[in-house]
Design goal:
Helix content: 55-70%
Number of domains: 3
Shape: elongated
Order of helices and strands: HEHHHEEHHEEEHHHHHHHHHHHH
Number of helices: 18
Largest sheet: 4 strands, antiparallel
Amino acid sequence: MERHYVTTPFGRRPMTLAMVTGQLAEAEIPTGKRVDKWKVFRDLCDARVKLGLRDRALAVLNALLSFFPETDLEEGDNLIVFPSNAQLSVRANGIAGTTLRENLGILVDSGIVSRRDSPNGKRYARKDGQGEIRDAYGFSLAPLLVRAEEFAMLAQEAAAERRHLQLLRERITILRRDVRKLVAAAIEEGAKGDWLAIEAELVTELFDLKRKKTIDELQKVADRLADLHARALNMLNSGLKNKKTAANDSEIRDHIQNSTTESSYDFEPALTTGRAQTAKPDHEPIDTPDAPTLEIKSAVAARPENPEARKTMPLSAVTKACPDIRAYGPGGDVENWRELMAAAIVVRSMLGVSPSAYEEACAVMGPENAAITLACMLERAGHIQSPGGYLRDLTRRAARGQFSVGPMVMAAARARGVVGAATSPLPS
């Protein structure tokens, strides 16, 4: 074969300069070069994102490689395979003809394989008198031999990026947990500081987190969460120092006493306190900040990644049915989903719902639906004895697939007279 000869595609397929460059590179393969075809294939699988390859394209390449009888691709060998589309389809797990041709084109355009078309476009081989292949027309695997080192480097880079992404996600998870629990501890124990602002920034930062896929996007989130963690820790440390100073002063001046034994931040009543037992009606759930149940963990794992899929209704419908929430938004109004979630943080504190209960609701329902739920609860705040327990109960029902915000919003709308008279209360 004349390895230096540059051939063009059959029929209407265009010729490109990249094809010319690839064929010229094939003519300059170092003498004696040899690579394991399956090692190159594994490198391509690892680097498929960088090369823009689909899984189907890799399945077709696997089928093409299976038609080459040797394990190694070696310089000087005939590296052209010539299976028919029917044979390729069988070895590519029954892939449809249209999909097969599309993915063959992807492999050619990506420079993974190259075409060697016959005069009539058919794939076949012509042998000499000794049975050796003299001319073959089909797909050349020579680009795999030429670019083997390049594919290996791309595979290593892809592996390093995956490790970096994993470390970033782990760091974000830890920072998210630490900030949330620091805020929860500070609020529930009455530490001084603007903790609602910290909590609002945390919810805003985690908005659409699952849509952030690149290293740069996740690195920015991790940096902002680290800054938020440092601010929360400094605020908490400052409050503890002030508290210690006040305690020292009280030891020196014994006549200064504080007879108040209960914190002004009386959030969801605990199950063990007698006051909580008398204040809670029999039908009202108590908020018990236990570890998330198995059904809640399962619901979090199954939550859709696309935030748009969690928005079950227009924002305008929510604000019309629950207009009270608008007063707590930035600037005294709610014009988008971020502002609704910021308003929900304020309402959460006002209703006495603990940060852990709201965080759990966000994890199960999604931050948008959790904010909608608080907006509806605000409309009926006077009828809910334990808002925190009520929200936890709705969260558990949502984890079981027994609760959605649609009927709740409709009930609030009927109560407002937006869509006729109210005929059903909020879910109990």
